[in-house]
Design brief:
Layout lengths: L12 H28 L7 H24 L7 H5 L6 H23 L1 H11 L1 H11 L2 H24 L12 H23 L7 H31 L1 H11 L3 H28 L4 H26 L5
Helix pairs in contact: 1-2, 1-7, 1-8, 1-9, 1-12, 2-4, 2-8, 4-7, 5-6, 7-8, 8-9, 8-12, 9-10, 9-11, 11-12
């Protein structure tokens, strides 16, 4: 059996890329909010890491949606999904979350950069500047809703797959939480990688703040993976078969143990602990750790998508 072509395969790699980018967008804006309110306060708009997160969040969600539209059988009919909603469809609800998330995401980004934006708009577009000032009056509400929507978007990437009842590995209640946690990790990694590339200091308080949160996130992800597969094995029947097909010898087994557990989780965890203990943070350390985290999350999305379709009920 080819790892990328086998009987019963319905969803291919574009879906895995879409799930990766959507989770990364949610994670990036989640960490941008944490940085602003728990680390930087009113100086957030000067931070390369907040700027990086605010660049990543919209670009990744647009790229993900673009890939999703191109992958549709009738891409020109995509607008119908935006107009006709089915409250019983996970995909329809997900599109709704995506649209509302973007609305609040841009409103929150505008509030973060309100000072430089107001200075630029005041002489060019005074009406827009007044609207921006009105927006800042609702900062607390917009921030809270943006945070909730980012968590909803991160979990939705898992709900989309877990709603498929015919596949025991995908139809797993742990999957939305696993994808939420890994999506937050990818957002943190993306903000760190682009932040240092934008000349952010590798030893800055933003990096230290994110690393403090990343360590428990990685540990939680490892526990989630253990729970995910332990539940399948202990359930017996086709669920147990699905778990062994995914974890056993073969291409996807190597991807899981070497790529996800080794490169994507264990090495970033070890590097984070080393940097926290030694207080040594350099560009190369931060960039390499973030790159490995991103690779691990990307591999996880492909691993779950493909191995999930290898075994059906």
């Amino acid at each position: 059996m080819s790892p990328f072509h086998f009987d019963g395969l319905v969803w291919h790699w574009p879906i895995a890329i879409y799930l990766f980018l959507a989770g990364m967008s949610a994670g990036a804006i989640f960490f941008a909010i944490l940085l602003k309110y728990f680390c930087l306060k009113q100086h957030a708009h000067h931070s390369s890491f907040v700027i990086a997160a605010c660049i990543i969040a919209p670009l990744t969600i647009w790229a993900g949606l673009g890939i999703l539209v191109i992958d549709l059988t009738k891409p020109l009919d995509f607008w119908k999904i935006l107009v006709f909603y089915n409250p019983l469809s996970v995909m329809s609800l997900g599109v709704m979350v995506l649209l509302v998330f973007q609305l609040f995401m841009f409103a929150w980004i505008a509030i973060v950069f309100a000072v430089p934006l107001s200075a630029w708009l005041s002489t060019r577009l005074p009406l827009a500047e007044r609207l921006l000032q009105q927006l800042t009056r609702y900062e607390a509400g917009i921030t809270g809703l943006t945070m909730i929507l980012s968590l909803a978007l991160g979990a939705y990437t898992g709900f989309l797959l877990s709603a498929l009842p015919g596949y025991p590995l995908l139809n797993n209640p742990v999957l939305p939480l696993l994808f939420l946690i890994s999506g937050l990790s990818s957002g943190a990694a993306g903000a760190l990688l682009l932040g240092v590339l934008l000349k952010g200091q590798a030893d800055s308080r933003e990096v230290k703040f994110i690393h403090k949160i990343e360590i428990p996130l990685i540990l939680t992800e490892l526990v989630m993976l253990f729970t995910f597969f332990a539940g399948l094995v202990l359930s017996g029947g086709q669920r147990q078969v699905a778990a062994w097909n995914a974890l056993g010898p073969g291409f996807w087994g190597w991807v899981f143990w070497g790529g996800i557990i080794g490169l994507g989780l264990s090495l970033p965890l070890a590097m984070n602990l080393f940097m926290t203990a030694s207080a040594q943070r350099r560009f190369s350390y931060v960039a390499a750790t973030a790159s490995m985290s991103l690779l691990g999350v990307l591999l996880l999305r492909h691993f779950i998508l493909y191995t999930g379709q290898m075994t059906s009920l």
